[in-house]
Design a protein that fits this description.
The chain has 190 residues and is mostly helical. The chain has helices at residues 2-16, 45-64, 67-70, 74-101, 120-127, 131-159, 163-188. It is built from seven helices and no strands. The radius of gyration is 16 Å and the shape is globular. The model is unreliable at 1-43 (pLDDT under 50).
Length: 190
């Protein structure tokens, strides 16, 4: 069992911490419970997924904050505000789950550019754009973010052990798919 947990954690970490860069209503989940794989410590699948999601969501929140001043498309601006509100609530829940494991709130992914994460360089480029150029870059960044989060949430559900973390992952997977569908509808109108 321990070998499986380690292997799953490594898969999640490799999927999340590669050098590649492609350019939720707050979920209701069961009460926070200690992770079922506490003996695996910081490399358990549940902890790794939680830390990855916090890092991904925080970087996307920085991009979403730019939308009110930079976006031309009002529907995209409203969508960005909704996504930001849900991501903020999700980060709170992720931190609660991480705290329940006894792990510190440090970010082991600081400075890593993971798939689906807008890089600091692209965030700077985004901050320098406005109008249609901004809209296109934000939409592309959101699409990559949603797809990566959905994939990681599926992995957590398959390999994770903590019921509360797996429930949040299921909610994330569903929400990110709905976000992808809504984003596709928004961008097809342009």
């Amino acid at each position: 069992m321990r070998t499986r947990v380690y292997a799953c954690a490594v898969v999640l970490l490799l999927a999340g911490c590669g050098g590649a860069d492609p350019a939720a209503v707050a979920p209701t989940v069961p009460a926070v419970s200690p992770p079922a794989v506490a003996e695996a410590g910081a490399i358990s699948t549940d902890v790794a997924w939680t830390q990855l999601m916090i890092a991904l969501d925080q970087r996307m929140l920085a991009a979403l904050e730019l939308a009110p001043q930079r976006a031309a498309d009002k529907a995209l601006t409203a969508f960005a505000a909704d996504v930001a509100r849900r991501h903020e609530a999700e980060v709170v829940r992720l931190r609660e789950l991480l705290q329940a494991t006894g792990m510190p709130e440090t970010n082991p992914h600081e400075g890593h550019d993971m798939p689906g994460m807008i890089t600091k360089e692209n965030l700077s480029l985004l901050a320098g754009k406005s109008g249609a150029e901004f809209d296109t870059m934000l939409a592309d960044s959101l699409r990559a973010h949603f797809e990566q989060c959905r994939m990681l949430a599926g992995s957590e559900q398959s390999a994770g052990a903590d019921p509360a973390v797996k429930a949040l992952a299921a909610s994330v997977e569903t929400t990110r798919q709905a976000d992808l569908d809504q984003l596709a509808a928004l961008t097809s109108l342009r």
